[in-house]
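Appendix C. Worked example: Cationic amino acid transporter C-terminal domain-containing protein
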Amino acid sequence: MMVAVVIVGIVPYFAMDPDTPISSAFAKHGMQWAMYVVTSGAVLALCSTLMGSLLPQPRILMTMARDGLLPSFFSDVNKHTQVPVKGTIVAGICAAALAFFMDVSQLAGMVSVGTLLAFTIVAVSILILRYVPPEEVPLSSSRRESMGLNQEYDEEKGRDPLGDDICDTSQIKDLIATEAMKDPLLEKQHKGKMDEMKRRKIAAFSIGSVCLGVLVLTASASATWLPFLPLCIGCIVGGVLLIPGLVVLCCIDQDDGRHSFGHSGGFMCPFVPFLPVVCILINTYLLINLG
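Step 2, the predicted output written as structure tokens:
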């Protein structure tokens, strides 16, 4: 803000170059050295931003590959540098190809579309995790290794120094079964299972109805070239799909996530159905218009 105030004080806003306002303001007053300094700083800032955007991408690909969402090709790590070299090469080639074949304005539009798409996916994921979370959560390799070490430690702890078991296998199984019956996290799997499955089906259908309604409503509202009657019909159909789904999500209970994540699920915000749906609606509208 202060930089804008200073530049407007140097050169009137209507006389500025919209592409390079700061450097051109110094150039109009004969300060060529300042123009070169500002331009060099802008180029270096762009390079650092590009590096900061490219370096995390191979790590994201590596994590997704370890979770099974991508081929194992991206999960390989170099033994000497401990860097995902294959993912880095693939991400660099894709970025170079986009920069070579596409215009800067098109790339800027793609960046905006990617950001909006990421926010939309996050909003949909919030609804899914709140109402229909997965039954099983995949563990990372480090978490599996730590759990394996803890299991080995427990097995060694159950033995005496001479190597004999303190209790036999049947006693260990009885103890585990007794603890499992007392564990409230495992109790949920047996109590009210049919009601929980019914709630999950209704929630999944409602989330699908909300997403489809948002897509139909925003597409109809953006299609200004359509006649008035089809446009109104599309908006009405989108509203019919969107509003009942949102009402159902507000009425049914949220999943506490204890059977999936091992804890109570945190604070159940009463505005969870509204805020993600509004975010999905706005982002989808912008995506359709930018696309």
